[in-house]
Amino acid sequence: MTKEEAKKKIETLRKELREANYKYYVLAQPDMSDYEFDKKLEELQKLEQTYPEFYDPNSPTQRVGGEPTTEFKTVRHKYPMLSLEKSYNIQDLKDWIKRISKMVAENFSFCVELKYDGVSLSNQYLDKKLVQSLTRGDGIYGDDVTTNARTIRTLPMILRGNDVPREVFARGEVMISKKNFERINIEQRKTGLPTYMNARNLASGTLKLLDPKIVAKRNLDFIAYFMLGEELPVDNQYDALKKLEEWGFFVPHDYKKAKNLDEVMDFILDWGVKRFDFPYDTDGIVVKVNEFEVQKKLGYTAKSPRWAMAYKFPAEQKLTKLLGVDFQVGRTGKVTPVANLAPVKLAGTIVKRATLHNEDNMKKLDLHEGDYVYVEKAGEVIPQVVGVEKSKRQPGAKPINFIDHCPVCNTPLVKQGADYFCVNTTTCEPQIKAQIEHFVSRKAMDIDGLGPETIELLFKEGLIHNVADLYQLKTDDLKDLERLGQKSAKNIISSIEKSKNQPFDRVLFGLGIRHVGATAAKILAHHFKNIDNLMQASKEDIMAINGIGPKIAESIQNYFSNPQNQKLIQKLRQAGLNFEENQEHKVIDQKLDGKRFVISGSFAHFSRDGLKESIEKHGGKVMSSVSKNTDYLLAGEKPGPSKVNKAQSLEIPIISEDDYLKMIS
Ligand code: IVH
User: Ligand 1 in contact with 146 (CB < 6 A)?
Assistant: First the structure.
């Protein structure tokens, strides 16, 4: 194939794949089989590798995610990203319409849309091509997340149509569909990782990930709701949405023109119910003045446009029968009352349990056996009991009181503040299991493969009684357990082994001392340098540290005065965990002699951070991109092709992990 032919072929493939992507993801009318799509994509990938001179950031190959970044650039928005004024009832809407009607002479109408509960994103297109995607940030400056945005299949990288202005901004919401959210959480559970609270937080976290390949796997969507620019081909919001659709954006067909408040209300009432079956989370309706001319006259306040108003849906409430109250013991021994309910559908999910928070709240509710209770989702996520329908109470029904002994180990409960605690932190089963879950969690020791079910299993089999026992486990102990095979057993053991390299602050956080969160653990580790200093410190010593209050200080003293905990630390120390702060940038030798390294790919013996630390310890430096000043490209498995190409063209030596190990040995 000549270069010219390759160029043509690349262009054709890109066009075909772009078209297929649009039909599949935006129109939901696929016309190419998955097989054919994958084949063509593979062919394109190969051609692009052979002919790197035809690299195009908007090629469909970028949908699977380009190279990881180390940080996002902050960029000023050309047009600030404002928020919307909110209203919660019809009166607010009426007042708003009255107010703006007085400000302009002409008649106007509305465009009513769903208010998508996601993360806003502003995308700049120049000559139809996506050039930059910015998060909202503080509204004036946002983060440049373009490489991540390119993985969003419903965000076009090249616009369709012949009336696209030279520069246009398409704004909208990055979303994770309800179905996709469920799928991701099922995966998380399977791999023993914590589940996500809601789709919005997950979408927002995903957009900020540094590795676009992971972003690509989360299947984000982009829903467009707004266009901005100097030469728009439309003069009203309704037509703008139609136009965005024509250009290849995903705009759910659920927007309408409304002539007056009555028609706005029809839409609100309709969607107050329908939204639960809508594939994405919505938290209200947005009412916009339709005509751009009128919008312009109304203008903006400092925070929001005067021509738009959000109407927030009220939290849905349901009445259901109380079947009983359980008392749950958490990681710190805190006892939380939880209502068991006759199953009821609430805001899209079936609810069977709802929190009652604490004793005071139970008293306020005045719960009786067999009561009918109102449930509501706090922040649309956690169901809670908010009231009792007293008219439905059976005569002679017995009141339900808080308990005074631990429901699991029968230790007398101790009241602290508004909460009761089981103080048996060393043998009360749910506490220990939760402690282990916390210890292995990502922010603590980051041990893979140990989800709640596996922990339960290990516990049931008598293989672990506390976190120190994890370090005594052997592959043979695990491989015959239900659901675990040789391979996952091996992975778990190697992940446990790796965790020994976690720094002191993570170990400290992992111990699960009450009130000692990840940040406090960092502060303490840094201040005291090692566990012995911390164990010997007085309450006053601890409190004297900026950012550490009496609650934390007292809790630390309590923790270390318990002989069981002292024993546990002794065991963890013997297992080889870090109880001393690593002098992170302490240089051990100068074997690398100031040489500059760029790292790419994944490595057998190091995490990325670990490798960086190792290079620095031996007197080397780490850079984020290859330039003529780079001394080595340290390439692991699957290094980024653009880094490799660049190193080759600059004739910079590309070394393997083994080469590196030899250099420092
Ligand atoms: S229009 C000038 N339309 O709600 C503001 N916003 O608090 C233009 N949102 O930041 C925004 N759905 O992220 C608009 N159909 C919709 C929307 C919408 C969700 C978000 C947007 C904004 C926030 C307002």
Answer: no
Q: What is the rounded CA–CA span in Å between residue 136 and residue 75?
A: 10
pLDDT at 341: 97
What interhelical angle do 90-103 and 261-274 show, nearest 10?
140
248: nearest Cα among 351, 142, 172: 172
Q: Is 89 helix (H, G, I), strand (E, B) or coil?
A: coil
How deeply is 112 buried, as exposed, middle or buried, from its count of CB atoms within 10 A (0-12, 13-18, 19+)? buried
Atom of ligand 1 minimally distant from the CA of 115: 12
First to last CA, the chain: 47
Say if ligand 1 is within 6 A of residue 267 CB.
Answer: no
- The Å distance, Cα 268 to ligand 1 centre, comes to 16
How many angstroms separate the alpha carbon of residue 642 from the centre of ligand 1?
37
User: Which of the listed residues 78, 81, 82, 84 should we mutate to test ligand 1's pocket, taking the one with most ligand atoms within 8 A of CB?
Assistant: 84
Kindly list the catalytic residues.
115
Q: Whose CA is nearest to atom 15 of ligand 1?
A: 115
Residue 609, pLDDT above cutoff 90: no
Distance CA 193, CA 444 (A): 12
**Pairwise pLDDT comparison (625 vs 352), residue with the higher score:** 352
- Please write the tens of the pLDDT for every residue from 230-259: 999 999 999 999 999 999 999 998 999 999
113 Cβ closer than 6 Å to some ligand 1 atom: yes
Q: By CB neighbour count within 10 A (0-12 exposed, 13-18 middle, 19+ buried), where does 374 fall?
A: middle
| Probe residue for ligand 1, chosen from 87, 110, 112, 116 as the CB with the greatest number of ligand atoms within 8 Å | 116
pLDDT of residue 594: 85
Would you say the CB of residue 286 lies under 6 angstroms from ligand 1? yes
What are the tens digits of pLDDT across the range 134-190? 999 988 899 999 999 999 999 999 999 999 999 999 999 999 999 999 999 898 888
In three-state secondary structure terms, 574 is helix
Tell if the pTM clears 0.70, that is, is over it.
Answer: no
Domains of the chain by start residue, with CATH: 3-64 (1.10.287.610), 85-312 (3.30.470.30), 317-407 (2.40.50.140), 429-501 (1.10.150.20), 504-584 (1.10.150.20), 596-664 (3.40.50.10190)
What percentage of the chain exceeds 70 in pLDDT?
A: 98
Residue 586, pLDDT above cutoff 80: no
pLDDT at 496 > cutoff 60: yes
Grade residue 322 by pLDDT with cuts at 50, 70 and 90.
very high
pLDDT higher than 70, residue 95: yes
The residue behind tokens 């009561």 is: 371
Distance 347 CA to ligand 1 centre (A): 21
Counted residue by residue, the chain has a size of 665
Does any ligand 1 atom lie closer than 6 A to the CB of residue 633? no
- Probe target for ligand 1 pocket from 82, 225, 253, 307, with the most ligand atoms within 8 Å of CB: 225
